[in-house]
Amino acid sequence: QVQLVESGGGLVQAGGSLRLSCAASGIIFSINDMSWYRQVPGKQRELVAHITTGGSTNYEDSVKGRFTISRDNVKNTAYLQMNSLKPEDTAVYYCNAAEYSDAGILRGDYWGQGTQVTVSS
Fold first, then answer.
1. What is the pLDDT of residues 27-45, one digit of tens each?
2. Which residues contact 94 (CB under 8 A, 6 or more apart)?
Protein backbone atom coordinates (compact mmCIF):
# COMPACT_ATOMS: atom_id res chain seq x y z
CA GLN A 1 0.00 0.00 0.00
CA VAL A 2 1.44 3.35 -1.06
CA GLN A 3 1.53 6.08 1.54
CA LEU A 4 2.84 9.61 1.37
CA VAL A 5 2.69 11.36 4.73
CA GLU A 6 3.34 15.08 4.90
CA SER A 7 4.36 16.90 8.04
CA GLY A 8 5.82 20.22 9.09
CA GLY A 9 2.98 22.57 8.25
CA GLY A 10 1.67 25.15 10.67
CA LEU A 11 1.22 28.82 11.43
CA VAL A 12 4.14 31.20 10.91
CA GLN A 13 4.58 34.95 10.66
CA ALA A 14 5.52 36.59 7.40
CA GLY A 15 9.26 36.35 6.87
CA GLY A 16 9.50 33.11 8.79
CA SER A 17 10.44 29.60 7.68
CA LEU A 18 8.95 26.15 7.64
CA ARG A 19 10.27 22.80 6.47
CA LEU A 20 7.80 20.32 5.06
CA SER A 21 8.57 16.61 4.93
CA CYS A 22 7.00 13.88 2.84
CA ALA A 23 7.71 10.34 4.02
CA ALA A 24 7.00 7.69 1.40
CA SER A 25 6.32 3.99 1.79
CA GLY A 26 5.10 1.28 -0.54
CA ILE A 27 6.99 2.67 -3.53
CA ILE A 28 10.55 2.49 -4.82
CA PHE A 29 11.26 6.04 -3.79
CA SER A 30 14.45 6.49 -5.79
CA ILE A 31 12.71 5.96 -9.14
CA ASN A 32 9.95 8.46 -8.48
CA ASP A 33 10.01 12.13 -9.34
CA MET A 34 8.83 14.08 -6.30
CA SER A 35 6.83 17.29 -6.30
CA TRP A 36 5.14 19.69 -3.95
CA TYR A 37 1.85 21.29 -4.95
CA ARG A 38 -0.36 23.75 -3.12
CA GLN A 39 -4.01 24.64 -3.25
CA VAL A 40 -6.18 27.39 -1.83
CA PRO A 41 -9.98 27.18 -1.71
CA GLY A 42 -11.59 27.99 -5.04
CA LYS A 43 -8.37 27.65 -7.03
CA GLN A 44 -6.67 24.87 -8.92
CA ARG A 45 -3.84 22.96 -7.35
CA GLU A 46 -0.55 24.44 -8.55
CA LEU A 47 2.92 22.99 -8.83
CA VAL A 48 5.35 24.64 -6.42
CA ALA A 49 8.53 22.61 -6.81
CA HIS A 50 9.70 19.45 -8.53
CA ILE A 51 12.76 17.23 -8.21
CA THR A 52 13.63 14.43 -10.60
CA THR A 53 15.16 11.07 -9.76
CA GLY A 54 18.50 12.56 -10.80
CA GLY A 55 18.15 15.59 -8.54
CA SER A 56 17.25 18.24 -11.11
CA THR A 57 14.86 20.82 -9.73
CA ASN A 58 12.44 23.42 -10.96
CA TYR A 59 10.23 25.93 -9.18
CA GLU A 60 7.14 28.03 -9.68
CA ASP A 61 8.27 31.60 -10.34
CA SER A 62 6.87 33.13 -7.15
CA VAL A 63 8.89 30.80 -4.90
CA LYS A 64 12.22 30.87 -6.72
CA GLY A 65 14.99 31.92 -4.37
CA ARG A 66 12.82 31.29 -1.30
CA PHE A 67 11.90 27.59 -1.46
CA THR A 68 14.21 24.61 -1.86
CA ILE A 69 13.11 21.08 -2.68
CA SER A 70 15.34 18.15 -1.80
CA ARG A 71 15.17 14.41 -1.39
CA ASP A 72 16.83 11.72 0.71
CA ASN A 73 16.68 8.37 -1.09
CA VAL A 74 17.91 6.55 2.02
CA LYS A 75 15.16 7.93 4.23
CA ASN A 76 12.56 7.78 1.41
CA THR A 77 11.67 11.36 2.21
CA ALA A 78 11.24 14.56 0.23
CA TYR A 79 11.52 18.00 1.76
CA LEU A 80 10.43 21.53 1.00
CA GLN A 81 12.37 24.22 2.84
CA MET A 82 10.35 27.42 2.75
CA ASN A 83 12.04 30.68 3.72
CA SER A 84 10.90 34.30 3.63
CA LEU A 85 7.31 33.17 3.74
CA LYS A 86 4.58 35.52 2.58
CA PRO A 87 0.84 35.57 3.34
CA GLU A 88 0.18 34.56 -0.27
CA ASP A 89 2.01 31.28 0.42
CA THR A 90 -0.89 30.26 2.64
CA ALA A 91 -2.35 27.03 1.26
CA VAL A 92 -2.65 23.30 1.77
CA TYR A 93 0.57 21.75 0.53
CA TYR A 94 0.50 18.31 -1.07
CA CYS A 95 3.30 15.88 -1.81
CA ASN A 96 3.25 13.95 -5.07
CA ALA A 97 5.28 10.97 -6.25
CA ALA A 98 5.32 10.08 -9.95
CA GLU A 99 6.99 7.11 -11.59
CA TYR A 100 7.71 7.19 -15.32
CA SER A 101 8.80 4.45 -17.68
CA ASP A 102 11.92 4.86 -19.79
CA ALA A 103 9.60 6.03 -22.57
CA GLY A 104 8.23 8.77 -20.35
CA ILE A 105 4.86 7.15 -19.70
CA LEU A 106 3.36 7.77 -16.28
CA ARG A 107 3.18 4.46 -14.44
CA GLY A 108 2.35 5.62 -10.92
CA ASP A 109 0.91 8.82 -9.48
CA TYR A 110 0.50 9.15 -5.73
CA TRP A 111 -0.61 11.92 -3.39
CA GLY A 112 -0.36 12.70 0.28
CA GLN A 113 -3.21 13.98 2.40
CA GLY A 114 -1.90 17.54 2.54
CA THR A 115 -0.59 19.79 5.29
CA GLN A 116 -1.84 23.31 6.02
CA VAL A 117 0.57 26.21 5.87
CA THR A 118 -0.72 29.54 7.15
CA VAL A 119 1.39 32.69 6.97
CA SER A 120 0.15 35.65 8.97
CA SER A 121 0.95 39.24 8.05
1. 999 999 999 999 999 999 9
2. 6, 36, 37, 38, 39, 45, 111, 112, 113, 114
